[in-house]
Amino acid sequence: MEGYREFPLGAFRFRRDDYFAYVRFPTQKGGELEHRMGIDAFLRPLARDIAWSFFYGMVKFDDVFGTINHYGRVEVFAGKYHGPYKRSGLWHEEVLARDEVERAFRDMAADWVTEDFDPFAAPRETGSAVGPKRGSNLRALSRKRVVTQRMIRQEDRREPEYPVNAAFKGMEFRYGEMHIKPGHEGKFGLVNLFEYLGRSDVTWNPSIVSVVEHSLFCPSTEEHVLPVKHGNDRVEWFVQLNGQIDWEVCDQNTGELKAYVRMRPGDVAAMPADIQHQGFAPERSMLLVWENADPALPGQVRSGALPGDPDKLVTMK
Ligand code: PHB
Ligand code: FE
User: Fold this and answer.
1) Nearest CA to ligand 1 atom 8
2) 2-48 per-position pLDDT tens digit
3) Does residue 226 have its Cβ closer than 6 Å to ligand 1?
4) pLDDT at residue 96, rounded to an integer
5) Atom 1, ligand 1: residue with shortest CA distance
6) Ligand 1 nearest-atom number relative to CA 287
7) Of 96, 108, 146, 224, which sits with the fewest C-beta atoms within 10 Å of its C-beta?
């Protein structure tokens, strides 16, 4: 016996063994289906879905299982946004209170993430999640996205908490110069985004560093594979700061491939609201994700009042 607990959520049942996570669900067709994922590939999106409070729109753990954020309620689905599963009636969906889903996911992560596995680290930086139960890693799981509270000031400059990641060793962080007239020291600040990101100890976990009304700058460092396939409920922008990320862009409802995108430093992409995307970064790189957090957007996109296609949002061509 591997020693891991089993978890119910609505009519879903979750269990794990040494190598796999299993999601069991009743289907529209009748009977039950058990879907299997590699345990690392299940725990990485699980940890992010919790940390992001279900994010914007759809978080697919893989092509079959995932969640959709309805902001207060959460749809948990299996097979529903996978063309052949859907057509065959092999799907299930439940809309549950956010707290209920969060509690089940948190309990599952606390029990299933082993002490030597950090779901936010790149594979080269962490042990493996496979094998029998041994401890837990609540410290790694309790990380939250940083949310900026106020403008940074000069006196905020202090000894950095985190070392520069090995992948960015040798990168020069060149600060600009600032000369402040006496008496105004508390009003100005200088930050170097590359240094902030160079010291990030997580991958594919954006932090909110700038908030202007609904406009959020959420930069992140990326390496290996974005553990989720994200189907946004609004247009989202990517600015590649350095390194390279390849994106697979698929239809959000069927998973059908629509495009490959290779982003190099300086490239900017606007991701439409009707697709899902998954990124692949061969080396640690820096990405700025720009989100519009206006809570009215999903309804406006759904009703057609606002285009989900960024091309139609652009007035100047
Ligand atoms: C995304 O789904 O848009 C996303 C998520 C996490 C990241 C980068 C992009 O680190
Ligand atoms: Fe996204």
Assistant:
1) 204
2) 799 999 999 999 999 999 999 999 999 999 999 999 999 999 999 99
3) yes
4) 98
5) 230
6) 8
7) 146
